[in-house]
Amino acid sequence: MTIAIYHCSIKIISRGKGKSAVAAAAYRSGEKLTNDYDGTTHDFTRKGGVVYTEILLPDKAPREYTDRSTLWNAVEAVEKSKNAQLSREIEIALPNELSEAECITLAKEFAQRTFVDKGMCADVCIHNPNREQKNIHAHIMLTMRPLNEDGTWDDKQKKEYALDNNGNKIYDKRKRTYKCRTVQTTDWNGREKAEEWRAEWENFINSALAEKGIIEKVDHRSFERQGKLEKPTVHMGVAATQMERKGIRTIKGDTNREIKSINAKTSALLKRIEVLDNELAKMKEIPKEDSLLEMLMRFHDNGIKFSEVRGVSVSNLKKISKFKDLTHLIAFVQGHKIGTLSELAEKNSETKSGLKNYKYKLISTQKRMKELTELLDNYPRYKDNKAVYLEWQSITNPKKKEKFYDKHYGEIVLFKTAKSFFDINQNGAKLTPKAWQRELEELKKSAEVDRAKVEKLGDDVAVMETLIYNVQRLANYEEKDKEIQRRRTAELE
User: Fold this and answer.
1) 359 alpha carbon, distance to own chain's centre
2) Which of 6, 143, 225, 330 is the most buried (most CB within 10 A)?
């Protein structure tokens, strides 16, 4: 069964990080493009899984920009800085509930209304690498400069000079320049825009699902922002996903299965506890301070007297045959010192709080385990490919360097990706894979203990369900008996 999921990532393709807009466009479209900025040709014509590509242009854009090479080489040419931001990429997961043609239409409409109508050029590429595995998604590359009325590129930002009371520029003697501030020419780079775009994609998916008569909805907010206890699963990535599809278990795959299992278990228990709360609230006619054990005795009515149970230890109860069916219930009631329905309601509330506490702790543990898993996952890529990367960096001859890059493209990209990951997540700290592995093993043991405690709480919920069922049935029987007695009395009268 397919279930709608939400994925919308936003990132910048920057020359300062060794990226190229032309190279990115060539890869995403599966084409061969040459970057006029550095003369490098990027050939991805053998790449599979590209099912649709199209460039969408705003009214101001020159029509020749419908050619992919022309558009992105124009972007590369207008950006002079060595660390220039070249393009913004929106990557979205398309809903499996729609056909491939419907997904293409949905992605194009989203790009047109959200970005192109606001003045951006959008290069839309739809990938469906393995149609049996339902992994259809879209890459939308966007231009970052606005266009003038004549179709030329405008500035991303402009200087706004501070003026005195007479309208003259104010000179800063210390900095030896006029005082000014930078003003963005568009609002495309604002943090709130990313949230707006992500919410917009949520609306597009939910509208498309509703039109198909599908009640499931997606939410662009994190589980924490939604107020959910569930722990989100780990992003698998291409390599781990491919291995899992071939039946090869991966650390990320095992982590996701574990998280899903915990989420399902906890959610189900919390729902059962809510049901118990509702059932207890309905028992208005039953005196809340009536003895719970005495009610059990009356319900089973097998010759057991309340006095026989009072003060008898659980181990001794198990030796008495007539207590066989009630042993686990009596043991639970006595063990938790539950004498009345009011105390049972308190126990139910405590169980709910305990379950939530363990869940929050497991979420924290799983978050750190995810971090450690990703650190360990990236370390071999960093270590094994570092020598190749350093050798490539040491080559001074441009032609030899390009030839070496083409030959070792995979190793260089893997190292740069891993290095970027560690730069962001470690902030220059020493890489300690052995310490990470030890911490991960300790967290796994801690999580096992907490999971066992959750299982124990699940057992408590099952016993409370049985207790409430017993009391409800007793109340029904006794009410029927009272009704019969009332009828007989009425007949006699």
Assistant:
1) 17
2) 143
Q: Could you report the per-residue pLDDT of 356-375, keeping only the tens digit for each?
A: 887 778 778 877 888 888 88
Q: Specify whether the CB–CB gap between 270 and 229 falls below 8 A.
A: yes
Integer angstrom CA distances of residue 157 from 78, 79, 116, 299: 14, 13, 20, 80
Which residues in 361-390 are b (16+ Cβ under 10 Å) and which e?
A: ebbebbeebbebbbbebbbebbeebeebbe
User: Token pair of 418, please?
Assistant: 């891993």
The one-character DSSP state at 159 is E
Q: In 3D, which of 453, 475, 452, 472 has the Cα closest to residue 464?
A: 472
H-helix or E-strand spanning residue 50: strand 50-56
User: In this structure, which long-range contacts are made by residues 68-74, counting pairs with CB atoms below 8 Å and at least 24 apart in sequence?
Assistant: 68/25, 68/29, 68/31, 68/33, 68/123, 69/22, 69/33, 69/34, 71/25, 71/121, 71/123, 71/143, 72/21, 72/22, 72/25, 72/33, 72/123, 72/141, 73/22, 73/35, 73/36, 73/37, 74/153
Q: Are 175 and 165 in contact (CB under 8 A)?
A: no
- Asked whether 37 and 22 are in contact (CB, 8 A), the reply is yes
At residue 77, does pLDDT exceed 90? Answer: yes
pLDDT recorded at residue 452: 83
What's the CA gap between 354 and 363, in Å, rounded?
Answer: 14
Q: Do residues 238 and 413 make contact, with C-beta atoms less than 8 angstroms apart?
A: no
Give burial (CB, 10 Å; 0-12/13-18/19+) of 88: buried
List the one residue out of 13, 245, 255, 261 whose CA is nearest residue 135: 245
Closest CA relative to residue 66, chosen from 157, 168, 193, 151: 151
Q: Are 72 and 21 in contact (CB under 8 A)?
A: yes
Residue with tokens 């045959």: 321
154 versus 452: the higher-pLDDT residue is 154
User: Nearest Cα to 272, choosing from 204, 352, 198, 152?
Assistant: 352
Distances in whole angstroms, Cα of residue 292 to Cα of each of 122, 303, 339, 362:
69, 17, 6, 34
Answer positive or negative: Cα dihedral of 357, 362, 365, 367. Answer: negative
CA 491/CA 493 separation, integer angstroms: 5
Residues 226 and 239 sit within 8 Å (Cβ to Cβ): no
Highest mean predicted confidence (pLDDT) among 170-179, 285-294, 373-382: 373-382
